Amino acid sequence: MKAVVKTQPGPGQVTFVPDWPEPKPQPDEVKLKVAAAGICGTDIHIINGTWRCDAPVVLGHEFCGTVVETGTLVKGFRPGDRVVAANPARTCGNCYYCRAGNPFMCPERVSAGYMIDGAFAEYIAIRAEMCHRLPENVSFREAALGEPISVAVHAAIERTQVHAGDVVLVSGVGCVGLLVLQVARLEGARVIIAGLEKDARRLECARKLGAGAVVNIEKDDLLDAVMQETGGRGADLVYECAGSPQSLETCLKAVKKQGTLVPVGMYAGPVTVDFNAISQKELDVIGTYGYVWTSWERCLALLAEKRIEADLLISHEFPLEQYEDAFRVTQDGSGVKVIFRM
Ligand SMILES: [Zn+2]
Ligand SMILES: [Zn+2]
Fold first, then answer.
1. Separation of 89 CA from ligand 2 center, angstroms?
2. What's the 104 CA to ligand 2 centre distance in angstroms?
3. Gap from CA of 103 to ligand 2 centroid (Å)
4. By the 8 A CB rule, do 141 and 339 touch?
5. Ligand nearest to the CA of 110
6. Interval between CA 225 and ligand 1 midpoint (Å)
7. All domains of the chain, ordered by start, with CATH?
8. Which residue among 145, 229, 234, 283 has the highest number of C-beta atoms inside a 10 angstrom radius?
9. How far is the CA of 71 from the centre of ligand 2 (A)?
10. Which ligand is in closest contact with the Cα of 40?
11. Residue pLDDT tens, the chain, 342 long
């Protein structure tokens, strides 16, 4: 089968393979014919060699498709079912966190797309437990965004609570930032969102998605903008979705006293933070990582009810063969969300 494979660790080392072996489902797995798969920041880290990866491995961990075969122990899915699947691909199922329903915290979790073969391929085998059935009116194109939507839902609804009338700052206009914007608005917040000059297309997207204020931080002062919008008080909740230390520093200043600061983005390494500011402002700093089962159920309900705009975020579709173009437009900021269509 066709696949995009990271052949060795380190920067680059990615290639298109026309005849990668097709996966066989284990007893608890289904084999999916992949319909669409999204490229995310993690893929770019893997391509650049800044994220762990057990090469050789098929990349891609955000995907949906049609069941074509089921393992002998699988119940509840049949060939022909349209599904979207969550990570981690494998967990121990037995530890404290697995039993508590938080597979991302499992010390033995194994993720598809960099530890075992992922979805930038024609087929993938995945545990049936990780699959969610797609509502009839949700397209594969929309479902390709299931993972980032679930991340945004977990961050803005499950780990924190946005209240109607809140002013929310989202720093960073990547796919997750634009989705946190949408989820916060659904909860009734006014949202200020910030990005860079190179994010022009994404900032435009944020405007269309109903952001109350859109700030290009290379042109305007973000802190000034937040203070103006909040009568000098600061934002009630701040979601740092850029994963940059400078952005985190601004967020710490932009959040109101007794407000909530949520680091959503991943940093390239340890960052320096003024913890005195956290104490003296009595901030709640809430970590959020991945999602849980309920995040996906909420994500699919929101897609089915057409309350999340996913289509607008997908700027490019590519076949697997054009993986170089797909990764380039993801990296240089000219795209918003880029997906592969098989
Ligand atoms: Zn991802
Ligand atoms: Zn576990």
1. 12
2. 9
3. 6
4. yes
5. 2
6. 31
7. 3-145+310-341 (3.90.180.10), 152-285 (3.40.50.720)
8. 145
9. 22
10. 1
11. 999 999 999 899 999 999 999 999 999 999 999 999 999 988 998 999 888 899 999 999 999 999 999 999 999 999 999 999 998 889 999 999 999 999 999 999 999 999 999 999 999 999 999 999 999 999 999 999 999 999 999 999 999 999 999 999 999 999 999 999 999 999 999 999 999 999 999 999 999 999 999 999 999 999 999 999 999 999 999 999 999 999 999 999 999 999 999 999 988 889 999 999 999 999 999 999 999 999 999 999 999 999 999 999 999 999 999 999 999 999 887 889 999 999
Cα 101 to averaged position of ligand 2 atoms, centre (Å): 9
Write the single-letter amino acid at 211: A
Distance 90 CA to ligand 2 centre (A): 9
pTM for this entry: 0.95
- Selection from 203, 213, 211 nearest residue 184 by Cα: 211
Q: How remote is the CA of residue 207 from the centroid of ligand 1, in Å?
A: 24
Query: How remote is the CA of residue 97 from the centroid of ligand 2, in Å?
Result: 6
Nearest listed ligand to the Cα of residue 92 = 2
